[in-house]
Design brief:
single chain, about 90 residues, mainly alpha, about 70% helix, binds zinc ion
Length: about 90
């Protein structure tokens, strides 16, 4: 490996580390990430760190898919809504 290759290699390592986040950080941003997707925005470009983490972490990917399903269902109003007025009837 010559010095040019070595420096390119280092640049790649630092670029990866800059984008890496841990699971709690990813989980904190997932609702925002899903919200962007549901609104038809390019979430992978707007939140690249979260996107990258989901690609690499099966746990967070599962969480992301569940959250996305729930948000899409809630948007379609397919989920039963609680009837709060029943609580105040005598
Ligand atoms: Zn994770």
């Amino acid at each position: 490996m010559d010095s040019t290759q070595a420096s390119q290699w280092l640049v790649r390592i630092f670029a990866t580390q800059e984008l890496e986040i841990d699971c709690p950080t990813s989980a904190d941003s997932l609702p925002q990430f899903v919200d962007l997707i549901v609104r038809g925005l390019d979430a992978s470009r707007l939140l690249p760190r979260v996107w990258l983490h989901i690609q690499q972490c099966p746990n967070c990917c599962d969480l992301f898919e569940c959250l996305q399903d729930v948000v899409i269902l809630a948007d379609r109003a397919d989920l039963p809504r609680p009837d709060f007025s029943a609580l105040f009837r005598d």
